[in-house]
Amino acid sequence: SFTDSPVTLKILQNWVPRVSHYFDKEHYTYVGHQIVIQESIEHFGAVVWPGALALSQYLESNQEQFNLKDKKVLEIGAGTGLVSIVACILGAYVTATDLPEVLENLSFNISRNTQNMNTHKPEVRKLVWGEGLNENFPVSTYHFDFILATDVVYHHTALDPLLATMEYFCKPGTVLLWANKFRFSTDYEFLEKLCNIFNTTILAEFPESNVKLLKATVREN
């Protein structure tokens, strides 16, 4: 059910590694801005994964196709916040969400990298996949133009709640952009489920890093 063949890309090494004996700060450059990310080894969500680099790079290079200016953007599983920061630089109203234990580092990175910019102030919110969606993000108030998700699918048990969360936020007119490193059979099984629910296209593949970038939209009857 895939249409155009995906573009094949490399993840560009557009960050400046810091010589350091422990996880310190990584410096990236996207959309003409230097972004400094503090990582943490305590949490999965606090490391920059390849999917985040792939999506950041893609958004930077395809601003006409995916114009984020003044659009409402939700990132689920925002992790270190890199993708949300890039979306913010591109002019979006960003809501970055993740698990409670990741929020402190996420908020720190987002506020540090966006505070002096003339952009919409991003919001950081707790979102546990599949839990309290109606209460915390009522449909009457929250409508997003874009849902961004990177490396949210790996060897974990929350895949069904993740899919339910994507379904909840993906309304007619919403575009879901999901970039993921494909390592396990569960990754492909999740992709299959996604294709059963949404109109799904592979936009880009990054073969060296096993990352695929997909676009999904609601099937309108």
From TrEMBL:
Gene3D superfamilies, per database record: Vaccinia Virus protein VP39
Assigned keywords, A-Z: Methyltransferase, S-adenosyl-L-methionine, Transferase
GO terms classed as biological process: methylation
Domain of life: Eukaryota
GO molecular function per UniProt: methyltransferase activity
Pfam families on file: Methyltransf_16 (PF10294)
Protein name as annotated: Protein-lysine methyltransferase METTL21C
Organism: Eudyptula minor
Name of encoding gene: METTL21C
